[in-house]
């Protein structure tokens, strides 16, 4: 058996804390963070205090909330040339919002999750607020994560479901049990785009299409969300066509444009 890596649990906890803080742009209290991460409040507070001392988080004392700190901004700026694709993706996200009237998004795969990187509001006045910059979902949950999971190599998708299907069902309901997920994955591969029929929030629908990296792996997704009445059966194929066209165009830009842009 592989020997445990010293300090690995601490690093995992720090990553969990930073990701949780990132999901709350308005800030989060240490109590709420402890609840969200499953850490005890003293442990959460100790980690936050240590991270603040290094500049990775910032403490708004009057509000009693923790936010991402300036050191993360500096590190992120240095990593942006390699990982940030929003400059290349923005025109696709804006076009989707303009052409459909729906809220449009770019999400990236990060391990077993997707994280929203970019949001553009459409013109239709009724909107869904399930997704926003920084929000994360497990693969298979929400249309972006379903689109990416559906196009992973078969062995990788099988391994993911073997490890996570029980937890997905427990957290997100029977619609995310393995048989139901596999059925939606098969449908996604048939049509090319994923559909989330209000499985996260009642009345909020989403559709997504995978964007591929130079190795042909699904690494990002473009998606649309809106109210159920805007995703009628007769309209979905047109929305899917637009998503696939922009996903293909973005894939082409990503695979032909040198990083550093």
UniProtKB/TrEMBL annotation:
Keywords: DNA-binding, Transcription, Transcription regulation. GO terms for biological process: negative regulation of DNA-templated transcription. SUPFAM superfamilies: GAF domain-like (SSF55781), Winged helix' DNA-binding domain (SSF46785). It holds the Pfam family HTH_IclR. GO terms for molecular function: DNA binding; DNA-binding transcription factor activity. Gene3D superfamilies: 3.30.450.40, Winged helix-like DNA-binding domain superfamily/Winged helix DNA-binding domain. It comes from the Bacteria. Coiled coil: none annotated. Residues 8-70 form the HTH iclR-type domain. Residues 71-256 form the IclR-ED domain. InterPro entries: GAF-like_dom_sf, HTH_MetabolicPath_Reg, Tscrpt_reg_IclR_C, Tscrpt_reg_IclR_N, WH-like_DNA-bd_sf, WH_DNA-bd_sf. This is IclR family transcriptional regulator. The lineage of its organism: Bacteria, Bacillati, Actinomycetota, Actinomycetes, Micrococcales.
